[in-house]
């Protein structure tokens, strides 16, 4: 899940871009795309193609339109992933933050799905469930992509 990494040296921070200023949004989207492995959807693990509908996702919906809504809460995602993500986060608290350095040690990819390393890790499981990493349609698309790559090789 390296693509969810955030950097204190982000151009978004350096340029002081704010989501509430609509004219900043295309630039925020461009920079998020660059940071997320050049266009990798933060939630579905698919590359965002030029014809795909993508949008800036506010990870914690409670922060949207508040002073706490900033770079650390924004990700670029495919619109359909954002549409199916829950509107409320409370049911998934406590939650591991997606940009946490701990993600790579607490969540692993195994047999086509993301699983927690330790069964009792509620925060990590809540992150998996909240952003829908193992939704059936996401799983199926992930498997198809792996098969396409294997065929190419």
Biggest β-sheet strands, sense, barrel: 2 strands, antiparallel
- Give the integer mean of the pLDDT values: 92
From the spread of the alpha carbons, the general shape counts as: globular
Note poorly predicted spans.
none
- Number of strand elements: 4
- How far apart lie the N and C ends? 23 Å
Structural class category: alpha+beta
Q: How many DSSP helices? A: 6
Helix content: 25-40%
What Rg, in angstroms, do the CA atoms define?
15 Å
Portion of residues in beta strands equals 5-15%
- Encode the helix/strand succession as letters: HHEEHHEEHH
Spatial ordering of strands, largest sheet: 1-2
Topology:
Blueprint: H1 11-14, H2 25-35, E1 54-58, E2 74-78, H3 79-84, H4 103-106, E3 107-110, E4 113-116, H5 122-131, H6 136-152
Antiparallel strand pairs: 1-2, 3-4
Summarize, please:
The chain has 153 residues and is α+β, with helices and mostly antiparallel strands. Helix content is 34%, strand content 12%. It is built from six helices and four strands; from the N terminus they run ααββααββαα.
């Amino acid at each position: 899940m390296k693509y969810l990494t955030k950097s204190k040296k982000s151009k978004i921070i350096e340029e002081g871009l704010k989501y509430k200023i609509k004219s900043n949004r295309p630039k925020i989207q461009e920079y998020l795309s660059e940071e997320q492995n050049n266009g990798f959807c933060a939630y579905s693990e698919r590359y965002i193609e030029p014809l795909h509908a993508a949008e800036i996702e506010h990870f914690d919906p409670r922060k949207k339109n508040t002073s706490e809504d900033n770079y650390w809460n924004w990700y670029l995602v495919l619109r359909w992933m954002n549409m199916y993500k829950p509107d409320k986060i409370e049911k998934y608290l406590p939650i591991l933050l997606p940009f946490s350095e701990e993600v790579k040690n607490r969540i692993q990819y195994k047999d086509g799905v993301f699983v927690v390393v330790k069964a009792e890790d509620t925060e990590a499981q809540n992150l998996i469930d909240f952003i829908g990493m193992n939704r059936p349609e996401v799983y199926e698309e992930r498997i198809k992509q792996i098969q396409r790559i294997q065929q190419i090789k």
